Amino acid sequence: xxxxxxxxxxxxxxxxxxxxxSSKVVYIDPISVSGTxxxxxxxxxxxxxxxxxxxxxxxxxxxxxxxxxxxxxxxTRCRIFLGKEPVPLMPSQSCKLCDIPVETVAAYNxxxxxxxxxxxxxxxxxxxxxxxxxxxxxxxxxxxxxxxSCDIAPLPVGGSFTMDPKQAAELANFISPHTVIPIHYGxxxxxxxxxxxxxxAVDPHIETDIRPTACSDVLIKMYAxxxxxxxxxGILIFLMEKII
Length: 244
Hints:
The chain is of the alpha/beta class. It has helices spanning 4-9, 55-58, 75-82, 143-146, 165-175, 194-201, 218-243; strands at residues 10-14, 17-21, 25-28, 42-44, 67-71, 87-89, 94-97, 100-106, 122-128, 131-135, 152-156, 179-183, 185-186, 207-208, 215-216. A hairpin with a 2-residue loop joins strand 1 and strand 2 (17-21).
């Protein structure tokens, strides 16, 4: 059942990082965290890509009793980089985390190689005070996502690595939540217009809630950092060859 108070408790931190401030404070794929709030009761990860798993940001949120849950394949990564033992999850599971009912949904690409089904990466359905919130993760339209029943759905709309605006609208129209929130788009994927393109394709009876913070340049920063590291490594190899 849709509750306006739950919608208002959902914050898009940046890109596709989500914070839900209900009876428990829940984060999903937190990045670009301001300050050091150390307020997370529960942190969920959808998959390990750098725009979804940022240890330096997660450490700003951790407190002694924070519960972390992630795809089983991320368990070692969480232990090494966060010093926490995560709750390992696979697709199509149901459990309670911090007294919140949680269901996992497979998140993957159909044809693109970026998010393979065999990885068993995840989306999540959270029951927040009776309102079902579907965090899709990086996914295309899949048979699993078509079976989702939810009231609120932040959906990736940037294309390239996920659904594009038209595809995301197709999924929204099929599962028909009360409200959809376009996320995971920006200068490098979809452009700033992606959210409006998505809204124009969503059925009028579904509310589209556009959050400015979802339009992000986080991928540009990430790839620039990778490029800088690659150049530095190339220079190092060149110098070593000269010395040898």
